[in-house]
Amino acid sequence: MSMTSEEKIRSAFENKNWQEIKVTDSWQIFKIMAEFVDGFEKLAKIGPCVSIFGSARTAETNKYYEIAVECGKLLTDRGYGVITGGGPGIMEAGNKGAHMNGGKSVGLNIDLPFEQFHNKYIDHNKLLEFDYFFIRKVMFMKYSQGFIVLPGGMGTMDELFEAITLIQTGKIARFPIVLVGKDYWGGLVDWIKNTMLEKEHNIHAEDLNLFRVVDTAEEAAEHIFRFYDKYVLKPNF
């Protein structure tokens, strides 16, 4: 029985076969390239979109699920498509709002051992499957004109802080980032302000302007709309 690529790599490490590891790494480049090409070709055609982030574990009865649905509806009312991570929870809710409103509903799904499976509200021709987190994150950054971030876990934090870092360092063009849920994000924002900024001086005061904290779908969508009343829609990088 033939081994999978993952099993071959594990076997090579166990047997300290360094040459085999180098060969496997080299061939992996072509799989990485293929994921980039597929993502660029499909997403380049979708038009202006906003990404909605949040936990895969959020139940339909949770207020943030309903807020995400409403965000999807409001964004598509104004001609924006909705991009999510393609899974359940908040991601499903964002896609659901877009789908119910007849808007573009995009899912960037990732192959994970638990939690992640694509939801039924993604347009059939706008579902992409990824093996690599870093490629998936490039797609979010490149093809989103804004981020709406609802309560989530480590993955949500990862996307949020990568976006802020890339904007802060000038690696991508600035776009609006909205955190929904003052109760959820308040403690983190206070720590950023009181500890990261005022106590340790690890950021500049103006970095706090790179995101906005709101409580409702209407406020989140309006922040996106106001930003583009002022700035022209353009590629992020």
TrEMBL record:
GO terms for cellular component: cytosol. It is an enzyme of class 3 (hydrolase). This is Cytokinin riboside 5'-monophosphate phosphoribohydrolase. GO terms for biological process: cytokinin biosynthetic process. Transmembrane segments: none annotated. The keyword Cell membrane does not apply. Its EC number is 3.2.2.n1. Belongs to the LOG family. The keyword Signal does not apply. GO terms for molecular function: AMP nucleosidase activity. InterPro entries: LOG, LOG_fam, LOG_family_nucleotidases. It catalyses: AMP + H2O = D-ribose 5-phosphate + adenine. Keywords: Cytokinin biosynthesis, Hydrolase. Pfam families: Lysine_decarbox (PF03641).
